[in-house]
């Protein structure tokens, strides 16, 4: 169960259910009837419009041969991710410190600052000014910056970045 949880952590369990039904070549209506549930309920779950209850998740686990509690744990992880997105102000740097041109190709308010940290750090250190670099260092911390960029030192407002580049 742990590998499945890590793989699907944060994804709505209805999407995983949909995938499993397709893999097993099962029709939603027939599956819903086998669980003694309304097809509409199952349809709403697979579309991500409705969450799983403990009772229904146990039925699905048993019917699909999952370890007991798998679908409910996936629902919990989804709810956690959803709650984290609500408190997104704590999960991102002060975006007013970034020039709009820096993120010209994306909506800066929709960036997942945790998942996309490598590309964000690279972009800031390739194209950003010292204020933007300072903001990223304050947000991620020097260790995380160093793990992505190679080596970093900040002295008197100057940020030095050394890339480990291969020479041919």
Automatic annotation (TrEMBL):
<dbReference type="GO" id="GO:0003677">
    <property type="term" value="F:DNA binding"/>
</dbReference>
<protein>
    <submittedName>
        <fullName>Addiction module HigA family antidote</fullName>
    </submittedName>
</protein>
<feature type="domain" description="DUF6922">
    <location>
        <begin position="98"/>
        <end position="148"/>
    </location>
</feature>
<dbReference type="Pfam" id="PF21956">
    <property type="entry name" value="DUF6922"/>
</dbReference>
<dbReference type="InterPro" id="IPR053830">
    <property type="entry name" value="DUF6922"/>
</dbReference>
<dbReference type="InterPro" id="IPR001387">
    <property type="entry name" value="Cro/C1-type_HTH"/>
</dbReference>
<dbReference type="InterPro" id="IPR010982">
    <property type="entry name" value="Lambda_DNA-bd_dom_sf"/>
</dbReference>
């Amino acid at each position: 169960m742990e590998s499945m949880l890590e793989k699907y952590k944060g994804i709505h369990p209805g999407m995983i259910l949909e995938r499993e039904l397709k893999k097993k070549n099962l029709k939603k209506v027939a599956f819903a009837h086998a669980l003694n549930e309304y097809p509409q309920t199952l349809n709403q779950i697979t579309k991500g419009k409705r969450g799983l209850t403990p009772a229904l998740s146990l039925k699905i686990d048993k019917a699909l041969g999952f370890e007991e509690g798998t679908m409910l744990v996936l629902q919990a992880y989804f709810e956690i991710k959803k709650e984290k997105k609500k408190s997104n102000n704590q999960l991102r740097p002060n975006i007013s410190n970034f020039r709009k041109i820096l993120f010209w190709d994306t909506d800066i308010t929709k960036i997942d600052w945790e998942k996309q940290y490598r590309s964000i750090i690279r972009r800031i250190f390739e194209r950003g000014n010292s204020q933007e670099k300072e903001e990223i260092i304050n947000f991620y911390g020097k260790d995380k910056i160093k793990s992505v960029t190679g080596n970093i030192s900040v002295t008197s407002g100057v940020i030095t970045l050394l890339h480990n580049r291969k020479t041919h």
